[in-house]
Amino acid sequence: MKIWAIANQKGGVGKTTTAVSLAGVLHNRHARVLLVDLDPHGSLTSYFGDDPDNIEHSGYDLFLQTQDVPAVIHKTKFENLDFIPASSALATLDRQLGAKGGMGLVIKKALEQVSDEYDYALLDCPPMLGLLMVNALAACE
Description:
The protein has helices spanning about 15-30, 45, 60-65, 70, 95, 105-110, 130-140; strands at about 1-5, 35, 75, 80-85, 120-125. By secondary structure, it is an alpha/beta fold.
């Protein structure tokens, strides 16, 4: 599985739009795509019709290790195009877990569990350098 992070430290520059557009192009080429919303604002999650403030299971659960990866993957109406939603709780991770050792590889390890199921993982990053962006960059090839 190829892992790409769509990252920029500035907000409003088109990270989510780029992630969705890339996913669409790859999907049209018959690739199996997993989108991962790592932005606490949850624009990617909202794009697929979910409310980041009312998500039962999200990428946040991967950091707390309360859910396995398949439990947080949401299907879309498009075959072979899935996503891991964000929740607003992601905003608390730096404060909760930032100093804890090994937290920079959570997303990489999570994606390894589903690497045979997808051709691409596209990581929609938050507009700040912190635990979430570090995880995204560490997961990339």
